[in-house]
Structure formats: C-alpha cells, structure tokens
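Forgive a beginner's question, but would it be possible to get a protein, spelled out as residues, together with the matching structure tokens, please?
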Amino acid sequence: MENTYIKFEAPESLEKETLDFVENSYRSGKIKKGTNEVVKSIDRGEAKLIVIAEDVSPADVVFYLPTLCDERKVPYTYVKNKNDLGIKVGIASAASIAIVDFGKNEEAYNTIISGINDIKAGKKPEKKEKKKELTGESKEEILKEEKESKEQKTEEKEEKTEAKKKETKSRAKKPKEPKEPKEPKEPKEEKAKEE
C-alpha cells in the first residue's frame, strides 16, 4: 500500500543533503522532534523546514503534515527511513522533525529549499557530478572528494560503535540494587471463638 501523504519523491541526493543538514542543525541550531512538537512549531510560525519519514506506520501519524505545511507555507521534504532521521537527532527513530533554527547552515538550507522547489515545479534536480563539471573541477578532485566523504562516513560509524560499546559497559558496571525482603504475611485472625 502506497503512503498517500507523500506528495513528491525526494531524490537520494536531496535526502542525503537533508539528513546532513538535520544533523548539523541538531548540533548547532534548534530542532523539534516528534509529530506533536512539529505541529506546534508550524502553528507558532517557528518552523523553517519540516522533514517527514516515508516509512511511518500508521501513516495517520504524519498524514496531515504536508497539507498543514502547504497551508502555512512551510517547506517540507521526505526521507526514506524514520530510523535514519532519528539517529541524526539523537533518538532511535523519528516520524518527523522541525528545524526551528539551522545555526550557521544557511547555504545548505538554501540548497535544500531550492531542490524542494525544483521538484515541486516538476524540474529534475541537477546531479552533483554535473555541477562539478560546470565549475571546472577535474576528475581527480571529484574522486578525492568522494574518497574523503567515504572516509568520513567510516569514521562516523566507528565513533557510533565506540559510543555503543561505552554505553553497554557503563550499563554493565552499575551494581544492581538489592531488593528489600518482603515481610511474611501474617495469618488471618481466627474468628472469634463461639460462646
């Protein structure tokens, strides 16, 4: 069954840029996690960008967000996986998030907004490779940049693994609190002796 709340398909490049932007905004700006907080930020006029996961179940949780965003003229986009979105904002999974303050990420914000507007207008977004060719970068520079990107992803995965190991160790080191012994139940009083 297709999710009817998905108004357009975000290409992979836009999704990646969005997830990076979300993570940077989480670190240097201000975000709201969870659909209730997202709706509040839209109503208050605080939201700069709404990011909605495509794999939300039940879909009713986020069904009305695109319509609300359109009514309030708040830009929104989609990511494929709620777990990916949640990890970028420090939780297990997130159906939706609102970026209230993007910190010093204005250039990334403008890029994402223009990508969203292009998709809604029916234009196909340009691929990064084409942009790089237009700016005159050589193939060696492109390959070097891609290699650095892969190395950075590997380092991030290693850091997450280290953090999980430390968390597991800290849980294991905590001594269990002894349970208080239960008091024995007193036998019920015998009925008054018959006269």
